[in-house]
Amino acid sequence: DVLQYGIPLAVAKEANSLDEKVERRLVSLLEEPRIWCQQRVQYRLLDLLYLSKIVGLKQTPVSFSDLLPLTYSQQIPTPIWTRLTEAYAFTHQVFYFSSFGMDYEMASPFVHACGQDPGALPCLISRFIAEDNYDISLELVFTGIVLNSIPNPYLALTLDWAVQALNTHGIVPSPKSDFYLKPFAGNESAELWASSYHTMLVFGATCSLASLSLLEEKMQYSHSEAAEFFAVGSFLACLANHDFHNAASCLESTLLQSNNKIVRDCASYTQKFLETQVSASGEVGLFCDESRLHFLQYGTSLTRINLEKSFNLLSEWASRSCHS
């Protein structure tokens, strides 16, 4: 409950508009050892740390510098291996270290990490766009703006994609989650608000951070840039699901004929990923779980010969694109 409801109360305190009794209760909760003793992943500890920071606590059991070596400042998430929870962990780490874009110096380790692998963030955004996840795609764009790590055309493309959804649906759709809907069961308008508020909040914050003048400058992209961006996303989404068959089908003319940076980056990540999917004897499907998932999805009609044919096609394209 402290993590779920604490941030709005802390923001109200920072604005000097929180009831004094509520403020005392919030501070006393954050000072209790039991709040900090619960086992949490790193970015959930950062929730508590950031909450404590804006409440004004002077001492906490751990500090931001204690947790920095355990964050994605060491290596940002890669487009194929990263799961949704890991992508959220990355964005939240950047949010809290940067105070939501207000403290660039605190976020500098993440800026350095992005500089070491500049292709990862655009490719990761394109992949989650292909998965129709507006929420994490926009969080990643917000992160890219904070870290100055998203090229202009891809910022424009993602925001334009979200605006089109807003114009079509009246909202920017959020992922389905019963967690937010339970308190509003039976109230249709309240359910719509509860299911959509987070993504709308992220969308508004992203546009606000970019600012109107910046958006006017950056809301430009070519047809070829859009085609490459979306093709790369569809391709990476297949690989992230260990779907070699459909990934090979995604090698349409857009990817086969382009030699632009995002396509070369995509090929590089593909090559590294495919190297982990081959056993020492050369057999495709090094990890039995991945092989099992693949065959459960497509049944017996997809033989190992077809799997290896798709795999070889992907390998040849990745190698050729990386060295062209």
Count the DSSP helices. 19
Q: Helix-strand pattern, N to C? A: HHHHHHHHHHHHHHHHHHH
Helix content: 55-70%
Terminal-residue CA separation: 54 Å
Shape by Cα distribution: globular
Q: Average pLDDT, to the nearest integer? A: 85
Largest sheet data: none
- Tally of DSSP β-strands: 0
Strand percentage: under 5%
Spans where pLDDT lies below 50 across 5 or more residues: none
* Alpha-beta content class: mainly alpha
User: What Rg is obtained from the alpha carbons, in whole angstroms?
Assistant: 22 Å
What does it look like?
The chain is mainly α and 324 residues long. The chain is built from 19 helices and no strands. Helix 1 (2-14) runs parallel beside helix 4, helix 6 packs parallel to helix 9 and helix 14 (223-240) packs parallel to helix 17. The longest helix has 23 residues, at 188-210. It is globular, with a radius of gyration of 22 Å.
In a few lines, what is going on in this structure?
The protein is an all-alpha fold and 324 residues long. Helix content is 68%, strand content 0%. The N and C termini lie far apart (54 Å).
